[in-house]
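Suppose you are handed a protein chain with no further information: no name, no annotation, nothing but its sequence. What can you learn? This example shows the usual starting point.
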Amino acid sequence: MKKWVVTGAGLVLLLIVLLGSLFVVREGEYVVVLQFGEAVRIHKEPGIKIKIPFIENVTSLPKYQQIHEDNQLGTILTKDKKPINVDNYTVWRITQPQMFLQTLKTMSTADSLIGNAVYSTVRRKLSEVDYGNIISENTARGDLNEDITREVMEQVTRSNYGIEIVDVRIKRTDLPDENKDSVYNRMISDRQSIAAGYLSEGDEESRKITSSADRQARELIAKAESDAKKIIAEGEEEAARIYNAAYGKDAQFYKLYRTLESYVTTIQDETVIMLPIDSPYTKTLLGK
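A reasonable first move is to predict its three-dimensional structure. Written in structure tokens, the prediction is:
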């Protein structure tokens, strides 16, 4: 009976030792084996691993990228003295687990350190840039994100924390609530002033175009009238020449024609005239 007890106790002890010596490395994590608090091995590949029970213990660290978010950095003054609230996020990862454990030890410590480094860099950088450039993603803001990322990366690299800053991004900039109305009103006033300037320039340009068009129209009409008068004069001159040539062939007929024309002018409707018997009019009418 005693033999069975000893055997059972031995099996239990063996099982405890066996379980205490095995651990699992999962996908997406580092597992660091510690011996009396000092890292002795780092396992990067997933699988079942062995450690010395009771002497070695393990701690796991994330292998993939982490995101640290600062939803409110407080009010920051830009270069042109405009107060703004900024939200940003930082993407980082552990590259040297052993160095990380020696310096930062925990994820919360790393998160706090990154937050402080990003805060000081963002605050200093934004104070060097005008507000208009900060809110424009296509101008200085893209360069600003790159500058902040580079500076924060240089800080953590110099300190050998075993981490890498992948990216720092400003995701939102906003005015403090107490400043919004005054800024919006000023923006509206500025836009109205710009619009009034455009309208004034448009009116001036319209007057120039209208004046030029009127002048060109007057010039065209004057030229057309001059050409018309010239054509009429030339026509009348040609008609007179033709008449003179025609009438010169028969002077008597021309005299008769002119007399008949004078009848048309003188005798209209029921006009009554008295002519002497020897008047050329009378002779013509009587066929003498």
